[in-house]
Design brief:
The structure holds 2 protein chains of 2 kinds.
Chain A lengths: L2 E10 L2 E11 L3 E6 L6 H8 L7 E6 L2 E2 L5 H8 L2 E4 L10 H11 L6 H10 L15 H14 L4 E5 L7 H16 L3 E6 L2 H7 L2 E6 L2 E6 L1 H6 L4 H7 L3 E9 L5 E4 L2 E4 L7 E7 L5 E3 L9 E12 L3 E8 L2 E8 H7 L6 E6 L4 E5 L1
Parallel strand pairs in A: 3-8, 3-9, 6-7, 7-8
Antiparallel strand pairs in A: 1-2, 1-4, 4-5, 9-10, 11-12, 11-14, 12-13, 14-20, 15-19, 16-17, 16-19, 17-18
Helix pairs in contact in A: 3-5, 4-5, 5-6
Chain B lengths: L1 H14 L4 H34 L5 H12 L3 H12 L14 H24 L2 H11 L4 H11 L1 H16 L3 H7 L9 H10 L3 H27 L1
The chains are: A alpha+beta, B mainly alpha.
Amino acid sequence: MRIEAREITKKAGGRFLLRRVSMEIPAGGVSVVIGPNGAGKTTLLRILGMLDRPTAGRMVYDGGAADGLGVRGRTALRRRLGFVFQHPLLLNGTVLANMRHALALRKRPFEEERVEAALAAVGLAGKKGLDVRVLSGGEKQRLQLARAMLLDPEVLLADEPTSNLDPLSTRYIEDQLLALARAGKTIILATHNIVQARLLGGRLIFLNDGEIVQSGTPGQVLRNPATLDVAHFSSSTNVLNGRLIRTGEDACLEAGGAAIHVVTELAPGLVTAVLRPEDIILSREPFHSSARNILSGVVEAVDDLGMVVLVRVRCEGLLLGAAITRSSLQELDVRPGEPAVLTFKASAVLVFPV
Amino acid sequence: MAYFLEGLRQALKILFPPSREVLEIVGLSLFVSASATALAAVFAAPLGVFLSLVEFRGRRLVIGLLQTALAVPAVLIGLVVYILVSRRGLLGFFGLLFTPGAMILAQALLAFPIIAALTLAALKDKARDGRDLAYALGASRGRMLLTILRQGRFAFLAAMVAGFSRVLGETGMTLMVGGNIKGATRVMTTAISLETMKGNFEIGIALGLVLLVVALIVNVVLQWGQGK
């Protein structure tokens, strides 16, 4: 189902939760609504999922406007949409009772094999008889997803389904979402987890303060963030507060006593810059390259992040983190207290007005 | 103390085996209060659900009025009902004054705000969660309401028990509109009040024990239901 939001505004308690949000979600594939807490993700998903009505604007499903529909029309539309809430909403009773209830609500016959299959897909096969009150948070969330899948909706909306979940439950849910997307379903996921957004791919819609700030593929958004808030999502390691002293071709940023070459058209003044740790090259000696920024400093800490190692280097008043692989670390053999050189391109520094 | 123990002995004699009169009084009490609770619940429980589900202009006002109604003295309700059902009153032609009907009406009015306010308080977010849950699964409006009823059944039960307990123990108002007529409108509380004033403690103690046992049974049933 193709879903369009046209100038959706939602106001509650005198406050704007959404401001003229327009977007188009194509049928099939994954769309990820990302943004900080309080950005309006839940409000937007509830409106897309026909659980709330917008204060102004119009929702359009497969070309048909939803605002003129009566109770029956709205129910018919809701039957094509599934919703997974951030805090699992379950019926008091057993796991099986919840599955039965979902089918009963839709006056569908109880088919044991389908129920078993849906529970098995989320790893709850042996827990049919358990009371939902004794399930862990992850199991509750998996049950919620299994219940939604049992009704086979065309569109599945999932509101931060894995926030606060352990890695195993997160994995089950991500796998199921991916499987549904591959089966041609439309998945709309709200998250504040950029890694999850990248994993599920599809289109990223960045929401902040009730407005869409940027949208595109995860790569586009992360490489070229439109605002500081978006940039913060891709990296919160190297955030530099400083003063832009020259702009244009020879733009230069002064931060922490260091002068950094940047590329920007902003007017000189106070700015915040973000530099992704992956964009910094770490070496023991300076080397000749086209990169315009070469800073010498002293290694302050080496943090093992699992996949990569973050080496924090103090250069004058700046503490910059460079992400390198474990094998590079072994080759370079840098330790805290030793000198190191950081090299990065002027264009790697993203500059935003304060 | 001795006369209390003597009264207790006499009271047990009255109860085992119970006299016809005692049975009638207990039966009428339970009938009137249960009917009043049921009558009030039919209107109060849906109001509680409505208030917890629907945002509308004036919602706060309605909730405020409901809370104020909780503080209205029973005797005032008795006065209003008396005026309504007395021969010259609005409902005079029903001839309800000094009948169980008038007592049920007055007790239902007393129970109404209790049941509505407690339903609202107990449901709080439960009603909205029930609606979200049902609508997310594509339920029709009727099925959505059934889901809320199912999720909130103990909230309703607890609210009804509180209302029932209140009206069963109500005396002054019931006396005003019922008249404490022997064999017709005499209930446990009005009988206790009358007999105690007459110095017949044993009947008062006997009926008091019955009231206590009823309260106990009702609350044990509620606890058992909630534990399940």
